[in-house]
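Page 42, continued from yesterday. The earlier attempt failed because a stray header line got pasted into the input along with the sequence. Redoing it now with the clean sequence only.
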Amino acid sequence: MCMRAFAKSVLVITAFAVGTRIIGFIFRIFLSRILGAEMLGVYQMAMSIFMILLTVISSGLPLVISREVAKTERGSNKVLHITLAGLLIGVIASLILCAIVLLCQGCLGFIFTDRRSIGILIALLPAIIASSVYAVLRAVWWGEKRFFLLGLTELIEQIARVLLFVLFLGFTFFFADLAHLSAWAFSGACIVSAMVVVLIFIKCNKFAHATGPRPHYVKPLLRSAATITGVRILGSLAFPLISILLPLRLVAAGWDNVTAISQLGVIVGMTYPLLTIPSTVISSLATALVPELSIMAGQKQWRTIRHQIKTVLQFTIFINFIFIPVYIALGEPIGTFLYADATSGIYLSRSAWAMLPLSLSQITNTTLNSLNKEGLAIRNYAIGSVLLFIIIWFMPAIIGADAVLLGLGLGMTVSSFLNIMAIRKYTDWHSPDRTLVTITAYTGIALPALTVGFFTYHFCPILPLWLNLSLAGALALTVFFILAWTTNLIILPKKRQ
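This time it went through. Structure tokens are written below.
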């Protein structure tokens, strides 16, 4: 894939991803306001366990399927057999997971600090089964580079979730509380999305000559998917463990349980989604990168691979630094404006720097997986996670709930560094690493940008909050882009003669 075609793919994915994230972000703001900090914390505890279950059936398997499909001639029977084998693995795994949760309801009381989370988790189980079908079929499009269909179906799922939640609000007497209502809306949206994907597959005659899964396709898929799933499970385990560990350590530091759960809800439900906004674009890069790197690695095109990775790393740094000065300067009013909660904005301002290692860890993990180095990705993520939980264990007594954000930032910094070193070694990359130099340069121009934003906001306190934020944010970004352009950190395309 040439750079122009790659850029076009990223643009298509990003366009859908931005639309999906905007809808999801607005819905999350609405949900946080309607649930409140405490109930949001209870909901997030259930969602964190749900995400582990979802990871088992929708992380490693789709990635392996997309890789195999990318290497296979489009329209061949092998693609169909890979798809059927993936469906068999995914559906059976999802049914086993749901059965385990239902049979072990009593044990969940030892995991959750609030038993209301158990009912919310059970309401999310239908989404596991639906996602096992949805993820496998979309993985085929991923491997075939049909990014329009990928983005469209993801957008449909988000719209369905919002519409179902609004519809269910008319029947609130059927639900224990609004958190349960949201969980059932989420499950309903996943079912709708799975049905849409299946219908598109049937319309495209994907199952026209289906004869059932071939056993010899099942084992290779399962073996490769298990390793990648291990990496993703380690990642998805982070937030469930945080949801359990943080309240315990805050209580041990002298906090009461209600306040501890509320702060968890603020950080995970309000602050963290803002920190992951750059990942919308980064995930688009990752999606476009996987099938392409898989093909190039098979053909040993190391020079092209190195150029591609270098470009992606530089773009990842740039995207994050668009947000970092704005968040640091205007975090508190952003939290007040979006959530009517200044505390979420204070956390945002303090932890804005953590966005960069989170994004770098994401893109470098994807790169290692694409290059068939899943084991290295597991090891490096595990090392970073150990540091994360050491900080969560010891630091709440000193810095309170900020320990989570500090741990995430430092842990993913270590993981990203180890990933970059592994990528350089595997791709025979001998030229000097410019990642740290680039980060230092962007930090230098971010400082005057955030200073302008901070003083602009506090210079005009009589303006309405939204107008003051818009003005300060716009000026901060203007300064950032001017400095980036004058220092050649970004180069504008020249007009053709």
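Notes: The CA atoms of residues 306 and 427 lie 7 Å apart.
Reminder to self: strip header lines before submitting.
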